[in-house]
Amino acid sequence: MRRLSSPAMLTPEQLAALVRTVPDFPQPGIQFRDITTLIGNGEGFAACVAHLANRAEAAGAEAIAGMEARGFIFGAAVAARLGLGFIPVRKPGKLPVPVLALDYALEYGTDTLEIDPTGIAPGQRVVMIDDLIATGGTACASAALLRQAGARVDHALFVIDLPDLGGAARLRAEGIAVDALIAFAGD
User: Fold this and answer.
1) What pTM does this model have?
2) Is 70 among the catalytic positions?
3) Does residue 107 have an active-site annotation?
């Protein structure tokens, strides 16, 4: 059996170097920050989860919520590392039980998020985790939905922040502390 060693954890700067930038996707002028290269690197993914877990623990997390879909990758890994429950914030029609649902505005149109409210204890401190915060629409809607279910949501963690798009500021205006491992200027 192979014995796993504990190498020095990569820094956020080293993690940033593992994120691939794809120019002009999904449209001209956009610099898409692609995390598949980060999660495809075992040491990088492990370090990313460890950094997020340390911050979630410091925030007093009693459960972790992750937004579909990439928030599931990081949120579930952090929850498992901390021995906490994971609350998936889903797209419509994915949960087989009665749900709480919230419609929210997008740049062009609306979308809906759903949760199973039975997975949240009244007053439970839930830390939200997602891969990226851009405009903050999904994160703000997720926080509102979790709060509607009785959760106390006062921290959100992200792998990447795009501060020029204002999403972190929107969450802070909702009384949520925001922390990201990496920030990339521009959109």
Assistant:
1) 0.93
2) yes
3) yes
Give dist(CA 128, CA 93) in Å, integer. Answer: 21
Q: What angle do CA 168, 61, 51 make, to 5 degrees?
A: 65
Whether 178 has a pLDDT exceeding 50, the answer reads yes
CA distance 93 to 97: 10
Peptide bond connecting 63 to the previous residue in cis, omega within 30 degrees of 0: no
Q: Is the peptide bond before 23 cis (omega within 30 degrees of 0)?
A: no
What DSSP element (H or E) covers 36?
A: helix 36-39
- Encoded tokens for 63: 């459960």
The reported pLDDT for the residue numbered 187 is 58
158-167 confidence digits (pLDDT tens): 999 999 999 9
Pairing of strands 63-67, 125-133: parallel
Q: Could you give phi then psi for residue 137, rounded to 5 degrees?
A: -60, -50
Say which CATH topology domain 60-183 has.
Rossmann fold (3.40.50)
> How would you write 153-171 as a 3-class SS string?
EEEEEEEEECHHHCHHHHH
Of 43, 70, 147, 174, which residue is the catalytic one?
Answer: 70
Domain positions in the chain: 60-183
70-82 and 42-58 helices cross at what angle (nearest 10)?
A: 70
Q: Quick check: helix, strand or coil at residue 94? A: coil
